[in-house]
Amino acid sequence: MPNVTIYAPESLLAQPDETYETFLGTCNALCVDLIRAEPDKVHVIFVATGRHAIGRPGYIEVKLRAGGHRTRELMGEFMDKLDAAFRTAFGADVRIRCFAYEGEHIFARN
Fold it and tell me: Which domain of life is it from (predicted)?
């Protein structure tokens, strides 16, 4: 964990592979270097959606383990940098929400 899920219209996500690679490199670095996730625990997935009628054209949801080092300020910095990376790569502003869970409330496999 963290699990980063990016929901955006297929038309917005229709980008060259290099765009994805650049964004994924930045996203992974933010997870590993900034919020100190274990490198083999980062999971990023893109979900192409239909037309967005209300709100921003995309949404990023981050689910992660709560940790004492993951303060409100640090997570604010993480979201600012993730937002900038998405805007640079895909040319759109997204809504970002992070949800931190205590370890005893996470049940996982693989």
Answer: Bacteria
Range of the domain at 85: 28-48+57-110
Strand, helix or coil for residue 22: helix
DSSP annotation of 33 reads I
Name the domain count of the chain: 1
The amino acid that residue 86 corresponds to is F
What whole-number distance in Å separates Cα of residue 88 and Cα of residue 66? 28
Alpha-carbon span 6 to 70, nearest angstrom: 21
Q: Which amino acid is at 12?
A: L
pTM for the full model?
Answer: 0.90
User: Tens digits of per-residue pLDDT, 67-96?
Assistant: 889 999 999 999 999 999 999 999 999 999
